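Field reference: sequence -> structure
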Amino acid sequence: MTGSRAGDYRILQEAALRDYLAGLPEIAALLGGAPAGWAITEVGDGNLNLVFIVKGNRGGIAVKQALPYVRLVGESWPLPLSRAHYEYLALSRQAELAPGLVPALLHHNETLALTVMELLEPHVIMRKGLVAGTRYPRFVEDITTFMARTLFFTSDLALTAAEKKDAIAAFAGNHALCKITEDLIFTDPYRIAEQNHWTAPYLDGLAASLRDDMELHVAISRLKLKFMASPEALLHGDLHTGSIMVTEGETRVIDPEFAFYGPMGFDVGAVLANLLMAYFASSGHERSPGERQAFESWVLETVEKVWNGFARKFLGLWRTEARGDAYPVSLFAGDKGAARLEIERQAYLQRLFTDTVGFAAAKTIRRIFGLAHNIDFELIEDPKSRAISEARAVRLARGMMVEAVAFRTIADVTGAARKLRDWQPELSQ
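Structure field:
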């Protein structure tokens, strides 16, 4: 259900949230018991929003409210509340296309920029599990289904031109969140920016080299242009392992507030980048040499299976569900047409793979030199060990970005990562 019970926007702290939820009969019934007995805990550890877990004697819910500024920075960085609307739209569409792979929506209030969702328990944030060395056997099947279906069915391969243009228009107003991506991922790490930070002093020289690397600047600028100018499909927009909740048997994708129509490789590359960062960070979490070897092998196998599984499912949908205006059936009639179209499908996937490699590299570099880092590296206690792990990841990322076309298969990527596992970088002192 959706509604706008409140007048003007206000930030709901515990008492106000309790009163608000008590006024929603379906939500109150789901929680059970008297509102005064509900346990409300603010658990938001992300960069932008308030997140509450609310539990009654019958059940629990998750409540997310957008703040009018970037939580990580504060009120000096204002941000439109409309991002909650786009997140709600994206979750609704994703639930249609990939049922069971996003949290169920229970209530939305556009005025309050507030959404109530099912409480995911005993799910954990995947990134935290990877830091601990946990393997998730269901993840590949679920994430490849999510990406293949959400990307294919929102593309020109599945939609008419009019449907696609209407869909683009529905998300076009989310430009403030896109601007964050355009700056923090594609621009700031390669220049002096106030909010950049890194593992100093060890990576000072590497940070300076990024600012002087014109080949890298050209490569990242091409990726930025593609991000801004290629509305291929509806993207999650922030599909990292901190936006995925998992158990050994289930996967749920959360937090699509950066959703917009952009290049497919951005989402796929984000998943692969975060797995590769987990791989390079792993040695920094070892208590004894080699204890995480099996986990690291699993991570690289997962990288390969994610791309291969996505490509297989995406191609399967194209072969059976292509009803869009791209590649009209009438142009590929008969055996000759079918054979030529199949060649084109493979070429399309190869181009998408090249995009994916480049975007994965961009996502890696921003997490090491930009504003928002991730705990894969940040929880490595010894700063020198952390810097070594980060330098290995950056070395791979630089090659993937500047020489993306040289990586013809996903095995080329994992092979390059494996070779850098024990490489010893020269650090600044």
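Note: Residues 334-369 form the longest helix (36 residues).
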